[in-house]
Amino acid sequence: MKQLFTLLLLSVSTVLIAQKIDYNTKKGYVAEGFDVVSYFVDGKPLKGIKKFQTKYDGAKFKFSSEKNLNLFKENPVKYIPQYGGYCAYAIAERNKKMYIDPEVYEIRDDKLYLFYNPWIGSVIGNWQEGDVKKRQVKGDNNWKKLKHK
Asked: Residue 103: left (phi > 0), alpha (psi -120 to 50), or beta?
């Protein structure tokens, strides 16, 4: 009985550890195929090219240049958008995953945050109002529950 219980625990923990983060891969790629390194290096989002792509943690990424692809491969965690590339404001304030407009973003504390841009106005302004640090903590806590759903 003890062996069966140990085997069951080992199986469940292996499945939980192997579970990947749910990345926002609308259009097949994280950040809708925009080059996640370009936000940092070029100071603006650039569209990725199919020629320069890679997979990380089960998700596909495209890059605008071989240089950016190599930078990503050296340190992918640095460039991956927060909250799997879903809208940071929706994660923090609505505890909900929402798609993004890859051209609406903010780099804060050396992290990339992406936002949706509804036809009535962008939510990045809402994100930047008030206590952003508190909003980040709230988003981080919400993401712990949402990242595997």
From this structure: alpha
Closest CA to 127 of 145, 146, 107: 107
User: Please, where are the H alpha helices in the chain?
Assistant: 2-18, 38-41, 66-74, 76-79, 88-89, 124-128, 132-146
Cα distance between the two ends of the chain: 32
- C-beta of residue 3 within 8 angstroms of C-beta of residue 11: no
What are the tokens at 59? 């998700």
Domain ranges of the chain: 21-146
Per-residue pLDDT of the chain (149 residues; tens, 9 = 90+): 444 444 444 444 434 444 489 999 999 999 999 999 999 999 999 999 999 999 999 999 999 999 999 999 999 999 999 999 999 999 999 999 999 999 999 999 999 999 998 776 779 999 999 999 999 999 999 999 999 98
